[in-house]
Structure formats: structure tokens, C-alpha cells
Design brief:
- Strands 3-4-5-6-7-8-9-10 form an 8-stranded parallel beta barrel, surrounded by 4 helices. Strands 1-2 form a two-stranded antiparallel sheet.
- 39% of the residues lie in helices and 13% in strands.
- The protein has a domain of 231 residues: NADP-dependent oxidoreductase domain (TIM Barrel), CATH 3.20.20.100.
- Strand 3, helix 2 and strand 4 form a beta-alpha-beta unit.
- It starts with a helix and ends in a 10-residue tail after the last helix.
- The protein is globular, with a radius of gyration of 20 Å.
- By secondary structure, it is α/β, with parallel strands linked by helices.
- It contains 11 helices and 10 strands.
Length: 344
Amino acid sequence: MDRRSCKEQQVRVMEEEDEEMNYRRVGASGLKVSEIGLGSWLTYGTAAEIEVAQACVAEAFESGITFFDTANAYNRGEGERALGAALKPYSRSSYVLSTKVFFPMGDGPNDRGLSRKHIMEQCEASLKRLGTDYVDIYFCHRFDPETPVEETLRALDDLVSQGKVLYAAVSEWSAVQLAEAAAAGRRLGLRPLISNQPIYNMFERYIEQEILPLGDREGIGQIVFSPLAQGVLTGKYKPGQQPPPDSRASNAKLNHVINSYLRDDVLQSVQELEDLAAQAGMTLSQLALAWVLRHPGVSSALIGATRPSQIKENVKAAEVKLDADLLEAVETVLQRVKDFAPLR
């Protein structure tokens, strides 16, 4: 082999190593997930066709992503069906799969919430839609003030005993609710919750105050969603300009989830962050994901994708280490955004 070919091979190997996925434990459990996970909210079964879901899942596996997240409420089960079909060609032991329960799945009084009845029935329904015998992580999608937390935790623990769920978790629970659940679980001798799934990105940082510290104490890892702020932290939205015609903000059915970000001061800060990312040799989305993953209490960041190329770009953030100067520069930009009030 000549010197040029050898050097080209070394470059290819270095590039492959640079794009290698990292894996983290979920809280205090022994379960490991890819630092970047693939979610399916507003994507599979709705905005994208089944073929696109299959292509994105294939690219995810190729890129080292082994964690896939969905929920029964995503398009009333269609998200689960689409993801289950896309995962069918792959060995069940090769990936970690999660889904959720809480939101209405029917018109009856027991077709919602976290009662034992709803949890048990929806777990069975989710398994059928996903085409699997078990899910690795089962999230309580929101807190249910109408059901005793002890009832919810016992139902989850029974599903683990039955082998239908391997680990129980929650999503968007407050620090008080997480502490209450942890204390109740210890009192009842139940298996502990391993994760909380909150929103977390450069603009929505509420978990830094109480939830991340509590998670560290209780062994609850944070699997965060919307790390790219509904796509705003890709740089596609510009201050003073109309949203791109194919974007979420231009879709009347979806734009309610992004409107709070479409402020001039937010979009101006995004432009500054994009400049910082370029100076550091990365894209804005890679900077935003690496920023989220800088905290060891974050087990994984969930991305959405309608094109395999989006996954290929975003997974590179798993290898990015942000130095102190860049973090300080990012913080200076973010501090200029005042009184951010998300619409949730």
C-alpha cells in the first residue's frame, strides 16, 4: 500500500472513530443507552410515512443508536405501530425500547391516567402494537393527581415481575413528585424508578435547579426530549423572516409547540450560537446536543428525524467535548434571553 493510500485509510479510521457512539447508564440501573436516542413524537405514523421510519431506524442502527422511544398517545397508537414495524428486522436484544402511558386512549373514564386498570390494559395494547413481548422502559407520561402514587408504583412493579416491562420510569414529573415516588417505593419495597423524561434544551433549563440534583441523589437518570428546541436550535428559523414552508412552525397542527421559541431575542441568540458552533468546527445542532449531554445526570438526548441525514449529523454530537471557554461563551449568549416562558 502506498503512503497516500495508507494516509487515506488512517483518515477514514479516524473519522469512523470520531463518529463512534457513546453509551451511558440510566440512573443507578445497569441499563445502558446510546447518548443519542431516536424518538417518534410527531414523526412516525403522522408526518412521515412508514418507509421513512424504516430508513431512519436503519440509519440509527448504522450510527450506533440503540435507544428508541415512543408512546401510546402518539397518534393514538400509530407511532408505536410504525416504530414496531421498523424495528422488526433487528434482534430484540440489540436495542432498548421505551413507550409511555397516561394520556387518553379512548372516551371512557378509565381510558386515561395512571390507575392500575389503565396501566395494565395499555401495556398489553402497546406490546401488541409494537410487536414485542416486553418494553425495556415504561414511562408514566405525566403525573396523575387523581391516582395514589402507591397504586401506580405497584402496577409498574407488577409489570416488571411479569417480564412485560424491564424498568419503570416517569416523564415530566416535578422534583416533589419524584421525591414522593422514591420515598413511596422504598416504603413499599418496590423496584426504584430509573429515569425521568423531561424537556431540556438551551432555553428550557428548569431541570437544572431541582430535578438534576434530585436525580443524582435518587439514582434517576434524565432522558431528555426536545434538545433542539423543536428544531429552533438547527438554525432553520431566522429573526424577521417567515418560517420555511416545510417546517413545523408553518404547520397549523404543530406550530403551537414551537411558538414560544419564535421570538426575535431567541432567534437572534440562535444566530449567535450558530456562529460559535461554526468557529468550533461543528453545526449548531451538534453544539446544542453536546451542551445537553455535558451534564452526567443526562443519560440520553432524544432526537426526532424525518430524514436519515438528520440522524447522521446529530450523532456526531456524542463525541463532542465542549471546553470551558466555549461553554462560557454559550452561557453569555443565553443570559441575554430573558423571561422565557414556554407554551406547554
